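Next comes this protein.

***
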Amino acid sequence: MSSESKTKTFLEFQFAMLLISGNILFAKLIDESVWMITFGRTVFASVGLYLFLKWRDKPVFFTTKTDNIASLGAGVLLAVHWITFFASARLASPAVAVLTLFTHPVITVFLEPIHFASRPKKTDLFLALLVLLGVGILIPELKPGNDLFLGILSGLFSAFTFSYRNLVAKKFLSHHGSAQVMFLQSLTAAILLAPVCYWDPIPTNYRSLGLMILLGTFFTAFAHTLYMKSMFQLKLKTAGILSSIQPVYSILLAWILLGDIPGYREIIGGVLILFAGTLETIRYKKEVP
């Protein structure tokens, strides 16, 4: 990959991270259950991506059974990831949800060698542990059994499913268009979550519906498609460590839009995460094409 292509991929990836960082704000902005928010975003993401693929005259389904099964599995993982992510935000706080989610660079460093012909280098382990340290500083004191503890467990499980979904998509689906890959994952998640309509009323007020449409189309369909496109061109561990900037983006957005002022923990942890991301960015740009 040329230096120009690397720069373009890096900028696309960072823009996707900035948009995805805004997802957590909807946990506070939308007055609906975690299940309904997740179901709504998958429905509107699926519709948006379907219309985009039809407009571009692109296929919406894969032609091989293996690819469709991989897409089904990735969609299930994506649904679980989104549910546990928003559950973490409700049980603990949006900050804790974002920060525990970003233990996934550490998880990715150890998962990737299992499925790809690569071994983690000492630098990979160092950067992953640096991210973990930054996240650890950001999380306040734990007390097992309370909502904070349950929120952190939910966030960690969200991190695992997110990391494994990326691995499945990278290994089995990276030769397909990112919009098609994201459409099938969103559709699978929407079908899986459809039963929520039986016990949770569908929102009828314009505010909730409008925010769900915005979350599903722009902050999910567009943002995650751009993320998938960039991720397919990067090593998983590189994507994981570079994406560790997302907690910093989320904290800044919450500060600007919701008035949540970061404390000293957020500042110190954010600096460590930024440092790890900067080192990985420099290393990525120096790699031989």
In short: The longest helix spans residues 65-91.
